[in-house]
Design the sequence.
């Protein structure tokens, strides 16, 4: 104990004095001691926890009379009046079996019982966190109803609720102590990389549906709230250490560790402070899917295929038409037309490098945060300064796979809050560190030892000679040609390869390097006031927010080549709640207006009704309707990112002009048209002078035999600039309790319009795109010129951001049950059904990216008092197979069954809990993101010390 106070003294440079000492004990209804109960002096910073025998001693900075408050998870909070310093305090706690009286804030921006929530809400309490069988509490969120995780890396998990989400889930928000955890550059949450330490969590609340009416445009398909503990309420030094092993067929067995410490102290009743530090280190799940990326047309093809493009292989994206190479060599006088005719009229690709050779596969995450809390008056008004820092290594999967190496993100907040209001402002900034794009790493390592044109030229020459002189079959000729062209290839592990690798990842130029550069900022402010103490006939709230982005990728990701891009949005809302019929009926109506810089304003209304039936109001029925919208992200508007096979191009009007690229023109006709050997195009070519990629593929399949008919298949791109997407959300629910059984049922029906998606187009570098150009009009015709550009590869592929005209509908149902059995056993289970529907024929190229299983089942059984100081938890979840769609790859994700288990033992005298657990017990590896590594097993032992 002396060491404990010595640490506090060093950390805060403070000495505390006491005037009174109060002692006592805390027991349950069976007269059994309750260890770890919180004992707090009301209105004072003084507090402690009970020991293993349920006893406590607390030092108080004032003389009696005063009130102490005793609380413990699973028991009703008690307040006891202390009238004498010699008083022996005996507290008997009553079980709190019902979950319906738990208090939540997120659903209405005001405290309310969970049974009165107007919309579906899921909650993870401190008790749930302590008993989770997952390696971290954030992993444990996957056991909540409505949650599907998209795992890109061991330390990067993206939450998906109600579908339409990839790893980059821009339709979901995550708030920690009111701060949006989204990356300013990427516009989506990076898992828990800058989130919250599990020993500092006070509560976690999840709204799985649209929440735009209160929380703005990004709360489109769900929002997660994580609230940390106050240093006024939870003091002392808390620490944990976790050590274990990960096991995967590809990576083998590897050690990992995770530890953290929380230090908090209230110096006076007016001032308190806290600090947290956590660090995790391990080996990531190896990504070793070597199937061809085209899982529709190239099923079963491996590296022997001449145009192989492996899922987790990079550098093989460099692909060109072999006949075109021959024609170029004829033009240079290297070969004859007869020799060129031997070459097949299809593409071949360079030999790539495996992902495991392009990353050290190490995963790390460190989080640091501290906050200062000041209560200047006797009421609840509080001023808070909070700073959060997160950095480490992980893998993010978007259009490509990116190794975020030394990635650093920080947030700083100043907040004034009281009983009925808050005003806060914060900013977020990030630094890409030494992060890089694995695709361009592979491409440019190849170019370090041999230029693309040289490699393809050698390939063509070897193919011709082996065919004409050696009599090789096409397969044999391809093998000989590849071996010849690969002469001098850098071998992973050699010094030459390491030198080339280090040079490439340090270079931000996509033509020669792969480094990601980012120094973007996001500034945000919001405020809320509740008039409940001033207006009595109803509870009325008003609020608003303002956000400013400063995008600065130095031209690497956005079109911010010469200066940063500024973009802002703001909104305001109001809500009114009224209880009727002896408080059995609660009606809520809210509306929000949001305006973004490049778009017209939008209104988001919500109406809801909650009715509590039964003598104890234990059966609640809820219904709600709301409209929501999502503004296009900064990526949708301002990206100009070359990902190798295409350029991702945002559609803000000024972005189309700012993006420009000079490309070579190799066709004699094209050179005559542009008046040289190169030409410059910009974003307007992509949106207004291009063909759909689907029609270009149809053209290529027929052009060799019937070019006139093939040209008739070309279809000019006809898409608009991106605009906000909208949703109409209908939801019904019923929550109730019968004795020790509690249950929650909900169903929803959503109608989406103007859904934001991507379309791939091919822009000719000369000529004019038009529907079904007529080749018989001759080379002076602009349409014919565009066909020549398509035929000779004088093009640029773009991935555009736009909206589909399709109306998309989704429907879902969820059921959750929890039952308290005799002898402290608890069981729970939940089921989710999710489905969507739209008419694909109206937009054949549109991908919904629903990425959600139709059926999911989860369950657990636990007992935190199986016998003295010993508890356990066993959880399991299952999902059926589902289709994965993303800009990286499309394909099926297999069904999976996952079992997690843990046992724990409390040592009250040491204020410690020892936990031993295993995730994915049973050994069947599974996948949640196509292209990411298979998830293996994780075994761990942890020791947590709580004051």
Sequence:
């Amino acid at each position: 104990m002396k060491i404990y106070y010595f640490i506090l003294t060093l950390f805060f440079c403070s000495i505390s004095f006491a005037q009174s000492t109060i002692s006592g004990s805390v027991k349950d209804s069976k007269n059994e001691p309750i260890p770890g109960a919180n004992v707090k002096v009301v209105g004072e910073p003084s507090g402690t926890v009970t020991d293993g025998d349920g006893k406590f001693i607390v030092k108080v900075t004032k003389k009696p009379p005063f009130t102490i408050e005793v609380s413990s998870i699973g028991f009703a909070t008690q307040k006891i009046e202390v009238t004498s310093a010699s008083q022996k305090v005996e507290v008997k706690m009553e079980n709190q079996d019902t979950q319906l009286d738990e208090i939540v804030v997120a659903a209405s921006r005001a405290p309310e019982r969970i049974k009165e929530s107007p919309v579906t809400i899921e909650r993870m309490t401190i008790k749930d966190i302590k008993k989770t069988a997952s390696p971290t509490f954030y992993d444990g969120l996957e056991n909540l109803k409505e949650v599907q995780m998209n795992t890109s890396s061991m330390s990067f998990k993206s939450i998906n609720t109600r579908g339409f989400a990839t790893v980059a889930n821009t339709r979901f928000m995550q708030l920690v102590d009111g701060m949006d955890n989204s990356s300013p550059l990427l516009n989506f949450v990076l898992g828990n990389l800058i989130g919250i330490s599990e020993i500092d969590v006070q509560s976690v609340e999840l709204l799985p549906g649209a929440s735009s009416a209160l929380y703005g445009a990004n709360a489109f398909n769900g929002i997660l709230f994580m609230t940390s503990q106050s240093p006024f309420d939870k003091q002392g030094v808390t620490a944990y250490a976790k050590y274990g092993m990960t096991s995967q067929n590809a990576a083998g067995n590897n050690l990992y560790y995770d530890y953290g410490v929380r230090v908090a102290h209230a110096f006076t009743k007016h001032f308190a402070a806290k600090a947290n530090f956590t660090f995790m280190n391990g080996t990531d799940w190896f990504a070793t899917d070597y199937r061809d990326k085209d899982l529709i047309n190239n099923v079963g093809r491996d590296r022997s295929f001449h145009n192989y493009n492996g899922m987790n292989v990079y550098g093989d994206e460099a692909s060109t038409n072999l006949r075109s190479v021959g024609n170029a060599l004829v033009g240079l006088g290297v070969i004859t037309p007869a020799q060129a005719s031997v070459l097949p009229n299809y593409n071949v690709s360079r030999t790539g490098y495996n992902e495991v050779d392009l990353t050290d596969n190490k995963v790390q995450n460190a989080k640091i945060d501290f906050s200062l809390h000041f209560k200047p008056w006797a009421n609840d008004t509080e001023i808070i300064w909070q700073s959060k820092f997160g950095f480490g290594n992980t893998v993010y999967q978007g259009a490509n796979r990116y190794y975020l190496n030394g990635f650093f993100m920080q947030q700083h907040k100043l907040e004034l809050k009281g009983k009925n209001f808050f005003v806060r402002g914060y900013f977020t900034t990030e630094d890409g560190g030494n992060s890089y794009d694995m695709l361009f790493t592979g491409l440019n390592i190849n170019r370090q030892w041999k230029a693309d044109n040289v490699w393809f030229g050698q390939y063509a020459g070897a193919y011709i000679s082996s065919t004409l002189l050696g009599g090789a079959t096409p397969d044999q000729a391809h093998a000989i040609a590849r071996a010849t062209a690969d002469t001098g290839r850098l071998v992973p592990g050699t010094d030459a390869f390491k030198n080339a690798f280090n040079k490439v990842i340090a270079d931000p130029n996509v033509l020669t390097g792969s480094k990601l550069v980012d120094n973007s900022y996001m500034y945000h402010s919001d405020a809320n006031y509740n008039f409940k103490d001033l207006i009595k006939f109803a509870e009325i709230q008003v609020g608003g927010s303002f956000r400013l982005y400063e995008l600065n990728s130095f031209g690497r990701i956005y079109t911010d080549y010469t200066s940063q891009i500024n973009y802002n949005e703001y909104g305001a809302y109001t809500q009114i709640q009224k209880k009727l019929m002896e408080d059995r009926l609660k009606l809520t109506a809210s509306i929000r207006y949001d305006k973004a810089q490049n778009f017209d304003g939008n209104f988001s209304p919500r109406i809801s009704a909650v009715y509590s039936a039964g003598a104890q109001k234990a059966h609640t029925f809820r219904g709600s309707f709301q409209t929501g919208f999502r503004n296009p992200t900064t990526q949708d508007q301002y990206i100009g990112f070359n990902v190798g096979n295409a350029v991702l191009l945002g559609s803000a009007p000024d972005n189309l002009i700012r993006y420009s690229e000079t490309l070579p023109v190799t066709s004699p006709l094209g050179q005559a048209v542009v008046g040289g050997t190169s030409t410059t195009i910009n974003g307007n070519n992509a949106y207004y002078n291009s063909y759909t990629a689907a029609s270009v593929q149809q053209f290529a399949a027929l052009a060799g035999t019937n070019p006139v008919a093939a040209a008739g298949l070309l279809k000019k791109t006809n898409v608009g600039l991106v605009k906000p997407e909208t949703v109409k959300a209908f939801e019904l629910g019923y929550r109730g309790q019968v004795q020790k059984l509690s249950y929650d049922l909900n169903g929803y029906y959503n109608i989406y319009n103007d859904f934001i998606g991507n379309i791939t187009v091919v822009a000719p570098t000369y000529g004019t795109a038009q529907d079904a150009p007529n080749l018989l009009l001759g080379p002076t015709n602009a349409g014919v010129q565009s066909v020549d550009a398509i035929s000779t590869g004088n093009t640029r592929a773009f991935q555009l951001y736009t909206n589909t005209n399709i109306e998309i509908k989704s429907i879902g149902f969820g059921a959750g049950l929890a039952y308290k059995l005799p002898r402290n056993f608890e069981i729970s289970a939940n089921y989710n059904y999710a489905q969507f529907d739209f008419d694909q024929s109206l937009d054949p190229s549109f991908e919904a990216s629903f990425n959600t299983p139709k059926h999911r089942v989860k369950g657990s059984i636990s007992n935190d008092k199986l016998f003295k100081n010993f508890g356990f938890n066993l959880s399991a979840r299952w999902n059926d197979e589902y289709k994965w769609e993303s800009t990286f790859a499309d394909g099926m994700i297999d069904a999976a069954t996952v079992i997690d288990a843990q046992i724990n033992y409390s040592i009250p005298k040491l204020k410690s809990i020892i936990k031993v657990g295993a995730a994915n017990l049973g050994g069947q590896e599974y996948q949640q993101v196509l292209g990411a590594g298979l998830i293996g097993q994780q075994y761990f032992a942890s020791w947590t010390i709580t004051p």
About this structure: The CA atoms of residues 41 and 487 lie 77 Å apart. Confidence is low (pLDDT under 50) at residues 1-18. The longest strand covers residues 401-417. DSSP finds 17 helices and 52 strands in the chain.
